[in-house]
Amino acid sequence: MDNASRRWRSKPLQTSNPSLIMAFFSCLAWLYVAGRLWQDAENRNILANLLMKNSVRRPKVLTVEDKLMVLGCKDLEKRIVEAEMDLTLAKSQGYLKSQLKQSGSSSDKKLLAVIGVYTGFGSHLKRNVFRGSWMPRGEEALKKLEERGVVIRFVIGRSANRGDSLDRNIDVENRLTKDFLILDGHEEAQEELPKKAKLFFSTALQNWDAEFYVKVDDKIDLDLDGLISLLESRRGQDSAYIGCMKSGDVITEAGRPWYEPEWWKFGDEKSYFRHAGGSLIILSKNLVQYVNINSASLMTYAHDDISVGSWMMGIQATYIDDNRLCCSSSRQDKVCSAA
Q: b/e per residue, 310-320, with b = 16+ CB within 10 A?
Protein backbone atom coordinates (compact mmCIF):
# COMPACT_ATOMS: atom_id res chain seq x y z
CA MET A 1 0.00 0.00 0.00
CA ASP A 2 2.74 2.34 0.75
CA ASN A 3 4.32 2.03 -2.69
CA ALA A 4 1.02 2.38 -4.45
CA SER A 5 0.12 5.49 -2.51
CA ARG A 6 3.52 7.06 -3.25
CA ARG A 7 3.02 6.53 -7.00
CA TRP A 8 -0.44 8.01 -6.76
CA ARG A 9 0.86 11.15 -5.04
CA SER A 10 3.70 11.72 -7.53
CA LYS A 11 1.47 11.97 -10.60
CA PRO A 12 0.05 15.47 -9.93
CA LEU A 13 3.55 16.81 -9.41
CA GLN A 14 4.64 15.58 -12.83
CA THR A 15 1.59 17.08 -14.60
CA SER A 16 1.94 20.54 -13.00
CA ASN A 17 5.23 21.59 -14.72
CA PRO A 18 3.79 21.91 -18.25
CA SER A 19 0.92 23.98 -16.86
CA LEU A 20 3.30 26.42 -15.23
CA ILE A 21 5.32 26.73 -18.42
CA MET A 22 2.21 27.35 -20.49
CA ALA A 23 1.02 29.96 -18.04
CA PHE A 24 4.41 31.73 -18.20
CA PHE A 25 4.39 31.84 -22.01
CA SER A 26 0.77 33.03 -21.97
CA CYS A 27 1.82 35.97 -19.77
CA LEU A 28 4.66 36.81 -22.14
CA ALA A 29 2.35 36.67 -25.12
CA TRP A 30 -0.17 38.91 -23.36
CA LEU A 31 2.53 41.45 -22.48
CA TYR A 32 3.83 41.41 -26.06
CA VAL A 33 0.39 41.94 -27.58
CA ALA A 34 -0.45 44.68 -25.06
CA GLY A 35 2.85 46.44 -25.78
CA ARG A 36 2.27 46.34 -29.52
CA LEU A 37 -1.27 47.64 -29.13
CA TRP A 38 0.00 50.53 -26.93
CA GLN A 39 2.76 51.35 -29.40
CA ASP A 40 0.32 51.33 -32.32
CA ALA A 41 -1.97 53.67 -30.40
CA GLU A 42 0.93 56.13 -29.78
CA ASN A 43 1.89 56.00 -33.44
CA ARG A 44 -1.68 56.75 -34.45
CA ASN A 45 -1.78 59.75 -32.10
CA ILE A 46 1.49 61.12 -33.50
CA LEU A 47 0.31 60.64 -37.08
CA ALA A 48 -3.01 62.32 -36.33
CA ASN A 49 -1.22 65.35 -34.82
CA LEU A 50 1.07 65.67 -37.85
CA LEU A 51 -1.86 65.49 -40.23
CA MET A 52 -3.68 68.18 -38.25
CA LYS A 53 -0.65 70.51 -38.33
CA ASN A 54 -0.19 69.99 -42.07
CA SER A 55 -3.85 70.70 -42.70
CA VAL A 56 -3.53 74.01 -40.82
CA ARG A 57 -0.42 75.02 -42.82
CA ARG A 58 -1.87 73.95 -46.15
CA PRO A 59 -2.46 77.01 -48.34
CA LYS A 60 -6.00 78.07 -48.78
CA VAL A 61 -7.61 78.03 -52.17
CA LEU A 62 -7.45 81.59 -53.58
CA THR A 63 -10.65 83.06 -54.86
CA VAL A 64 -10.79 85.22 -57.97
CA GLU A 65 -10.93 88.33 -55.74
CA ASP A 66 -7.80 87.23 -53.85
CA LYS A 67 -5.90 86.72 -57.08
CA LEU A 68 -6.93 90.16 -58.37
CA MET A 69 -5.79 91.74 -55.11
CA VAL A 70 -2.35 90.06 -55.38
CA LEU A 71 -1.98 91.20 -58.97
CA GLY A 72 -3.02 94.73 -58.00
CA CYS A 73 -0.38 94.88 -55.24
CA LYS A 74 2.31 93.71 -57.64
CA ASP A 75 1.28 96.33 -60.17
CA LEU A 76 1.30 99.03 -57.48
CA GLU A 77 4.76 97.92 -56.31
CA LYS A 78 6.04 98.10 -59.90
CA ARG A 79 4.66 101.62 -60.32
CA ILE A 80 6.28 102.75 -57.05
CA VAL A 81 9.67 101.44 -58.21
CA GLU A 82 9.25 103.20 -61.57
CA ALA A 83 8.30 106.45 -59.81
CA GLU A 84 11.37 106.25 -57.57
CA MET A 85 13.59 105.72 -60.61
CA ASP A 86 11.98 108.72 -62.37
CA LEU A 87 12.49 110.82 -59.25
CA THR A 88 16.18 109.90 -59.03
CA LEU A 89 16.61 110.69 -62.74
CA ALA A 90 14.89 114.07 -62.30
CA LYS A 91 17.11 114.94 -59.35
CA SER A 92 20.25 113.92 -61.24
CA GLN A 93 19.26 116.17 -64.15
CA GLY A 94 18.60 119.12 -61.88
CA TYR A 95 14.84 119.38 -62.44
CA LEU A 96 14.07 119.35 -58.71
CA LYS A 97 15.11 122.34 -56.63
CA SER A 98 17.28 121.59 -53.64
CA GLN A 99 17.86 123.72 -50.58
CA LEU A 100 21.44 124.81 -51.13
CA LYS A 101 23.27 126.44 -48.26
CA GLN A 102 24.85 129.66 -49.37
CA SER A 103 27.15 129.80 -46.35
CA GLY A 104 30.24 130.13 -48.49
CA SER A 105 28.82 132.70 -50.88
CA SER A 106 28.30 136.40 -50.29
CA SER A 107 25.93 136.67 -53.26
CA ASP A 108 22.68 135.01 -54.22
CA LYS A 109 23.56 134.93 -57.90
CA LYS A 110 24.73 131.69 -59.49
CA LEU A 111 28.50 131.31 -59.60
CA LEU A 112 30.47 130.30 -62.64
CA ALA A 113 32.64 127.75 -60.85
CA VAL A 114 33.76 126.29 -57.55
CA ILE A 115 37.41 125.23 -57.74
CA GLY A 116 38.74 122.78 -55.18
CA VAL A 117 42.52 122.44 -54.91
CA TYR A 118 43.46 119.17 -53.23
CA THR A 119 45.99 119.53 -50.44
CA GLY A 120 47.40 117.53 -47.54
CA PHE A 121 48.74 118.05 -44.02
CA GLY A 122 52.35 118.24 -45.20
CA SER A 123 51.74 120.78 -47.97
CA HIS A 124 51.86 124.06 -46.02
CA LEU A 125 54.79 125.47 -48.00
CA LYS A 126 53.19 124.45 -51.31
CA ARG A 127 49.97 126.26 -50.34
CA ASN A 128 51.93 129.43 -49.58
CA VAL A 129 53.61 129.19 -53.00
CA PHE A 130 50.21 128.93 -54.68
CA ARG A 131 48.87 131.88 -52.68
CA GLY A 132 51.77 133.97 -53.85
CA SER A 133 51.42 133.02 -57.51
CA TRP A 134 48.22 132.04 -59.34
CA MET A 135 45.86 131.79 -56.35
CA PRO A 136 44.44 134.90 -54.63
CA ARG A 137 45.91 135.63 -51.21
CA GLY A 138 43.76 136.92 -48.38
CA GLU A 139 40.07 137.30 -47.69
CA GLU A 140 39.64 140.47 -49.74
CA ALA A 141 41.23 138.94 -52.84
CA LEU A 142 38.98 135.88 -52.49
CA LYS A 143 35.90 138.13 -52.29
CA LYS A 144 36.93 139.98 -55.46
CA LEU A 145 37.33 136.66 -57.25
CA GLU A 146 33.91 135.62 -56.04
CA GLU A 147 32.45 138.79 -57.52
CA ARG A 148 33.70 137.41 -60.85
CA GLY A 149 31.71 134.26 -60.14
CA VAL A 150 34.51 131.97 -58.95
CA VAL A 151 35.11 130.41 -55.53
CA ILE A 152 38.45 128.71 -54.90
CA ARG A 153 39.36 126.68 -51.83
CA PHE A 154 42.00 124.23 -50.64
CA VAL A 155 40.26 120.90 -49.97
CA ILE A 156 41.38 118.69 -47.09
CA GLY A 157 39.92 116.06 -44.78
CA ARG A 158 40.61 115.31 -41.15
CA SER A 159 43.36 113.38 -39.44
CA ALA A 160 42.88 109.72 -38.52
CA ASN A 161 43.45 110.89 -34.92
CA ARG A 162 40.73 113.51 -34.77
CA GLY A 163 41.68 116.72 -33.04
CA ASP A 164 45.44 116.11 -33.05
CA SER A 165 48.09 118.65 -34.00
CA LEU A 166 47.51 118.05 -37.73
CA ASP A 167 43.87 119.06 -37.45
CA ARG A 168 44.65 121.98 -35.14
CA ASN A 169 47.29 123.36 -37.51
CA ILE A 170 44.82 123.33 -40.41
CA ASP A 171 42.17 125.06 -38.27
CA VAL A 172 44.66 127.77 -37.28
CA GLU A 173 45.76 128.27 -40.90
CA ASN A 174 42.15 128.47 -42.06
CA ARG A 175 41.29 131.13 -39.50
CA LEU A 176 44.09 133.25 -40.95
CA THR A 177 43.55 132.63 -44.67
CA LYS A 178 39.82 131.75 -44.98
CA ASP A 179 40.63 129.62 -48.03
CA PHE A 180 39.90 126.03 -46.93
CA LEU A 181 37.03 123.66 -47.55
CA ILE A 182 37.45 121.17 -44.70
CA LEU A 183 35.73 117.81 -45.22
CA ASP A 184 34.93 116.82 -41.64
CA GLY A 185 33.54 113.44 -42.71
CA HIS A 186 36.65 112.42 -44.64
CA GLU A 187 39.88 110.89 -43.36
CA GLU A 188 42.80 112.43 -45.22
CA ALA A 189 44.94 109.62 -46.67
CA GLN A 190 46.38 108.75 -50.07
CA GLU A 191 44.28 105.59 -50.39
CA GLU A 192 41.12 107.56 -49.62
CA LEU A 193 41.41 109.99 -52.57
CA PRO A 194 38.56 108.40 -54.59
CA LYS A 195 36.20 108.87 -51.62
CA LYS A 196 37.51 112.42 -51.24
CA ALA A 197 36.30 113.16 -54.78
CA LYS A 198 32.76 112.11 -53.91
CA LEU A 199 32.71 114.14 -50.72
CA PHE A 200 34.28 117.22 -52.33
CA PHE A 201 31.71 117.40 -55.13
CA SER A 202 28.82 116.78 -52.71
CA THR A 203 30.03 119.32 -50.14
CA ALA A 204 30.79 121.97 -52.77
CA LEU A 205 27.29 121.54 -54.23
CA GLN A 206 25.70 121.92 -50.80
CA ASN A 207 27.64 125.12 -50.06
CA TRP A 208 27.65 126.91 -53.43
CA ASP A 209 25.35 127.08 -56.44
CA ALA A 210 27.57 127.10 -59.52
CA GLU A 211 27.60 126.19 -63.20
CA PHE A 212 30.73 124.03 -62.84
CA TYR A 213 32.67 122.25 -60.10
CA VAL A 214 36.39 121.79 -60.66
CA LYS A 215 38.82 119.41 -58.96
CA VAL A 216 42.50 120.47 -59.18
CA ASP A 217 45.61 118.60 -58.02
CA ASP A 218 48.22 120.47 -55.99
CA LYS A 219 50.88 119.10 -58.37
CA ILE A 220 50.04 121.67 -61.06
CA ASP A 221 50.17 125.44 -61.56
CA LEU A 222 46.98 126.95 -62.89
CA ASP A 223 46.36 129.78 -65.32
CA LEU A 224 43.30 130.97 -63.44
CA ASP A 225 42.21 133.57 -66.01
CA GLY A 226 42.60 131.02 -68.80
CA LEU A 227 40.47 128.49 -66.89
CA ILE A 228 37.78 131.12 -66.21
CA SER A 229 37.70 132.01 -69.91
CA LEU A 230 37.37 128.32 -70.85
CA LEU A 231 34.47 127.87 -68.42
CA GLU A 232 32.75 131.06 -69.61
CA SER A 233 32.68 129.62 -73.12
CA ARG A 234 30.87 126.53 -71.75
CA ARG A 235 28.38 128.39 -69.58
CA GLY A 236 24.88 126.90 -69.74
CA GLN A 237 26.08 123.50 -70.99
CA ASP A 238 24.52 120.67 -69.00
CA SER A 239 25.98 117.19 -68.53
CA ALA A 240 29.48 118.43 -69.37
CA TYR A 241 32.37 116.19 -68.32
CA ILE A 242 35.46 118.18 -69.26
CA GLY A 243 39.15 117.35 -69.01
CA CYS A 244 42.23 115.97 -70.71
CA MET A 245 40.77 112.62 -71.77
CA LYS A 246 43.04 109.61 -71.65
CA SER A 247 43.17 105.87 -71.01
CA GLY A 248 45.94 103.52 -70.00
CA ASP A 249 47.01 100.09 -68.86
CA VAL A 250 45.59 98.61 -65.68
CA ILE A 251 48.33 97.58 -63.23
CA THR A 252 47.50 94.08 -62.00
CA GLU A 253 50.58 93.28 -59.87
CA ALA A 254 50.17 94.09 -56.18
CA GLY A 255 52.97 96.25 -54.81
CA ARG A 256 53.62 98.15 -58.04
CA PRO A 257 52.79 101.86 -58.32
CA TRP A 258 49.22 102.55 -59.48
CA TYR A 259 48.12 98.99 -58.63
CA GLU A 260 44.40 98.47 -59.24
CA PRO A 261 42.82 95.90 -56.85
CA GLU A 262 39.75 95.68 -59.11
CA TRP A 263 41.87 94.92 -62.21
CA TRP A 264 39.81 91.86 -63.15
CA LYS A 265 36.80 94.07 -63.96
CA PHE A 266 38.57 95.71 -66.91
CA GLY A 267 38.52 92.74 -69.26
CA ASP A 268 41.20 90.69 -70.96
CA GLU A 269 42.94 93.72 -72.46
CA LYS A 270 43.46 95.24 -68.98
CA SER A 271 42.96 98.79 -70.20
CA TYR A 272 41.12 101.64 -68.50
CA PHE A 273 38.15 103.28 -70.20
CA ARG A 274 38.35 106.86 -71.47
CA HIS A 275 38.35 109.36 -68.61
CA ALA A 276 39.50 112.86 -67.65
CA GLY A 277 43.00 112.88 -66.16
CA GLY A 278 43.10 113.46 -62.42
CA SER A 279 45.07 116.72 -62.53
CA LEU A 280 42.01 118.71 -63.57
CA ILE A 281 38.41 117.44 -63.71
CA ILE A 282 35.41 119.66 -64.50
CA LEU A 283 31.78 118.60 -63.99
CA SER A 284 28.66 120.61 -64.73
CA LYS A 285 26.16 121.10 -61.94
CA ASN A 286 23.68 118.39 -62.93
CA LEU A 287 26.45 115.76 -62.99
CA VAL A 288 27.56 116.84 -59.53
CA GLN A 289 23.95 116.55 -58.39
CA TYR A 290 23.96 112.98 -59.66
CA VAL A 291 27.13 112.22 -57.67
CA ASN A 292 25.65 113.83 -54.56
CA ILE A 293 22.36 111.91 -54.75
CA ASN A 294 23.97 108.53 -55.49
CA SER A 295 27.23 108.86 -53.56
CA ALA A 296 26.40 106.00 -51.17
CA SER A 297 26.14 103.49 -54.04
CA LEU A 298 28.84 104.77 -56.41
CA MET A 299 31.78 102.39 -56.82
CA THR A 300 35.30 103.74 -56.21
CA TYR A 301 38.50 102.36 -57.70
CA ALA A 302 42.13 102.83 -56.71
CA HIS A 303 42.35 106.27 -58.36
CA ASP A 304 40.01 109.24 -58.18
CA ASP A 305 40.05 110.01 -61.92
CA ILE A 306 39.12 106.40 -62.76
CA SER A 307 36.36 106.52 -60.16
CA VAL A 308 34.86 109.75 -61.55
CA GLY A 309 35.12 108.33 -65.08
CA SER A 310 33.23 105.20 -64.04
CA TRP A 311 30.40 107.32 -62.61
CA MET A 312 30.12 109.26 -65.85
CA MET A 313 29.89 106.08 -67.94
CA GLY A 314 26.57 105.17 -66.37
CA ILE A 315 24.77 108.38 -67.37
CA GLN A 316 24.36 110.54 -70.47
CA ALA A 317 27.39 112.74 -69.86
CA THR A 318 28.89 114.77 -72.69
CA TYR A 319 32.62 114.01 -72.86
CA ILE A 320 34.63 117.12 -73.78
CA ASP A 321 38.31 116.42 -74.48
CA ASP A 322 40.06 119.80 -74.27
CA ASN A 323 43.83 119.55 -74.61
CA ARG A 324 44.20 122.99 -73.02
CA LEU A 325 43.59 121.00 -69.84
CA CYS A 326 46.48 118.62 -70.60
CA CYS A 327 49.18 119.99 -68.30
CA SER A 328 51.98 118.31 -70.29
CA SER A 329 50.72 119.74 -73.58
CA SER A 330 52.95 122.00 -75.70
CA ARG A 331 50.06 124.36 -76.47
CA GLN A 332 50.72 127.98 -75.63
CA ASP A 333 47.16 128.53 -74.43
CA LYS A 334 47.03 125.59 -72.00
CA VAL A 335 45.57 126.48 -68.61
CA CYS A 336 47.80 124.28 -66.42
CA SER A 337 51.37 123.06 -66.15
CA ALA A 338 53.34 120.80 -63.84
CA ALA A 339 54.22 122.61 -60.62
A: bbbeebebebb
Single pTM value for the model = 0.69
Question: What does the DSSP assignment read for 41-76?
Answer: HHHHHHHHHHHHHHHHHSPPPPPHHHHHHHHHHHHH
Say how far apart CA 284 and CA 317 lie, in whole Å: 9
CB atoms within 10 A of CB 254: 9
Residue 295: in which H helix or E strand, if any? none
CA angle (84 as vertex; 80, 85 as ends), nearest 5: 120
Check which CATH number belongs to the domain holding 299 and give it: 3.90.550
Q: Nearest-CA neighbor of 98 among 250, 332, 286?
A: 286
Which domain range does residue 66 map to? 61-90
In this structure, the chain runs to a length of 339
Residue in 223, 247, 225 with CA at minimum distance from that of residue 310: 247
Number of domains forming the structure of the chain: 2
Q: pLDDT tens digit string along 80-122? A: 777 767 676 665 555 454 444 444 444 467 899 999 999 999 9
Instruction: State pLDDT tens for residues 59-71.
Output: 555 566 665 666 6
